[in-house]
Design a protein that fits this description.
Helix 4 runs antiparallel to helix 5. Helices cover 76% and strands 0% of the residues.
Length: 129
């Protein structure tokens, strides 16, 4: 694995940012915008994915990174669940649902693969050199 010096270089963070952008765009549609509780909740959960990846990376220890990645993965699941709610309440179309759901499912799998890699790796982070 290549050395990564910034969380912005992580593919999982970049994808989380794209998810967050997509959720924000969907949430600006008039029907969705009026559903304030769900709109706020899905915006928070999508933002939590990228924020927890960043926070874990910045702590410079693999155990802490794994911990925050697991929170990011949980936020990914929360956002997927909220995506169903948005579909069921006609805040997004089936096509929008399918696109966002696929992105979230891929993100969850990639976060899980990164967690598995870190658990097997001898790299412990700058904190423990």
């Amino acid at each position: 694995m290549a050395t990564i010096s910034n969380f912005e270089d992580l593919e999982i963070w970049q994808k989380a940012r794209n998810i967050c952008k997509m959720v924000y765009a969907f949430s600006q549609k008039p029907d969705f915008f009026e559903n304030t509780p769900l709109r706020h909740q899905i915006l928070r959960s999508s933002g939590s994915i990228m924020d927890n990846i960043a926070e874990g990376f910045e702590r410079e220890g693999s155990k802490e990174l794994i911990y925050f990645l697991s929170i990011a993965k949980g936020s990914c699941g929360e956002c997927r669940s909220q995506t169903y709610r948005a579909l069921d309440q006609n805040n997004i179309s089936q096509i929008e649902f399918d696109e966002l759901y696929k992105m979230l499912a891929v993100e969850s799998k990639q976060i899980n693969k990164f967690i598995s890699y870190l658990k097997e790796s001898k790299i412990k982070g700058n904190k423990f050199k």
